[in-house]
Amino acid sequence: MHFWELFITALLPVLKVLLLTGLGTFLALERFDILREDSRKRLNTMVFFVFTPALVYGNLSDTITFKSMLMLWYMPINALLTFIIGTALGWLLIKITKTPHKLQGLVLGCCSSGNLGNLPLIIVPSLCKDSNNAFGEVEVCYRNAMAYASLSMAIGTIYIWTYTYNLVRVYSCKNSNVCQVDGSTENQLSAPKSDPEDISKCSTGQFIAAGDKRESNDRVCQLDIESTMQDGKEKVAEKKKIMEHLRTIAEKLNLKKVLTPSTIATAIGLIVGITPPFRKALVGDSAPLQVIQDSAFMIGDAAIPMMTLLLGANLLKGLKGSGVQLGLIVGIIVVKYIALPILGVGIVKGAAHFGLINHNPLYQFVLLLQYAVPPAVAISTITQLFGAGVGECSLIMLSTYVVATVSLTLWSTFFMWLVR
Which domain of life is it from (predicted)? Predict the structure, then answer.
């Protein structure tokens, strides 16, 4: 395919995203007020708990097998590299632009996390629908594209709510008084002290007669019993200490956020896909429980348009967002759309050269695309949780997603040329 053919092929999916996003913004205007605040919350809840899990489960269970899992082992590492490199570049941006303390967590979050779910789910399968696509037969390409994009979404969800969430939390707590470590945990974890009553009983010497051996033996037995009870208390206290440590680690990692419906659906989809008895029962035209699989696909089909409409409605806040220095927005755009994709090309092609990944063009395209996507939409939710740059986040998200319409088209064109 010539460059202009590749460009048109890459442009069409981005235009679909742009049109649906624009429609979402249009419906959220006060003049029409269809996607008002309460409506967005309800739709977002439906997308989060129903549509997206059904989409992820259906595509993973239908396309992922044990053999394909072995082939896709590099994708979680590749996604993690995008987060780590983005964090390093974001830290340099903070130092160069002298970003205010309250916005440092926001900048690191925007630079580190990418939209690894919504956009790949729209762009990659849409590329396969073109009969002149660079990835082979339409049906096979589409099925594999949905599997790769669904797995990318699941991985991205886990990393965002473990890595990025805690990154923003640390910087928000360090630069403000909103988050303070509660000292009660530390007090509970301190070593148990001796009971004053036990000390007083030992010091008074409760003997009837100094020479009475019976009383002396009873006292020895009493001391042995108290010593045994004290050892038991110490063991219980040690177990409590371990449980408190585990509870503290779980709270810091925010495991409730990690175990989102999409993550749970990913686990179920992978289990069904790689386990032959489950796969025979649920997947395929002759499967006795095929109706469950078909229902999941029907519900999941609503996820992509709903997510894109909500994205456009939420970006409307950026038009009313508070002022952010232009240099900071430009810096984030340079990190996300220039520096990261260039480094991504070197990493993915290097991995292919050393045989770490197979030479499947579609698979390599998805890996490359993970370096070129705009910031994750979940960043706005995370900043709201900590109250760190909420208004500035809306403006940054609006700016980066507007630029992404051109950037994604150009990078997608180049990536298709590179992997074919």
Answer: Eukaryota
